[in-house]
Specification:
CATH superfamily of the largest domain: Tetratricopeptide repeat domain
CATH topology of the largest domain: Serine Threonine Protein Phosphatase 5, Tetratricopeptide repeat
Distance between the termini: 35 Å
Order of helices and strands: HHHHHHHHH
Number of domains: 2
Shape: globular
Largest sheet: none
Helix content: 55-70%
Number of helices: 9
Radius of gyration: 16 Å
Structural class: mainly alpha
């Protein structure tokens, strides 16, 4: 059993003990996302949002990340939905780095470079150490995924680091 499988198993125990717990459901959804299980991630994070009367920004930004799917091997999917979710996250928390990064990727992918660069500039105000060096780290084990993400961030003007 790999690390993702072990983490998912632990999160599933947490959800079983707190089926109406928004945080438990959110964290299981994030584990599904990191394991590349897009549909499971979407279902679980949407459940967390339904259970939480005041969802935090990450609920929307990670759900947006699941819908966008840039770091998943099968690549981008529902960018319109992802954009809406990430904008909602930024209304809750204007410094939400996940939402900023997803919007940068979306705009770059769509060749909306002026918007991508503006989003990058805004994100770098609250996350000044973000760089391509950070993105190129071990998070993206799939070389093609890492290459795709780095190119999109590069187009938006993210510094090399």
């Amino acid at each position: 059993m790999g690390k993702n499988d072990l983490a998912i198993a632990e999160m599933e125990k947490w959800v079983a003990s707190e089926p109406n717990g928004a945080q438990a459901n959110f964290h299981l959804g994030v584990m599904f996302l990191f394991a590349g299980r897009r549909e499971d991630a979407i279902r679980q994070i949407e459940t967390a949002i339904r259970l939480d009367p005041y969802p935090w920004s990450w609920s929307y930004s990670f759900l947006g990340q699941a819908y966008a799917g840039f770091f998943l091997p099968d690549g981008p999917k529902d960018l319109e939905k992802a954009t809406q979710l990430c904008k909602k996250a930024l209304k809750i928390n204007p410094t939400d780095g996940v939402a900023h990064r997803e919007l940068i990727l979306i705009y770059s992918y769509q060749n909306r470079l002026e918007e991508a660069r503006a989003q990058a500039s805004e994100m770098l105000k609250s996350h000044p150490n973000f760089s391509l060096k950070v993105v190129g780290g071990p998070l993206y084990k799939d070389k093609e995924v890492r290459k795709r993400i780095l190119e999109l961030f590069r187009k938006a003007g993210i510094p090399e680091g």
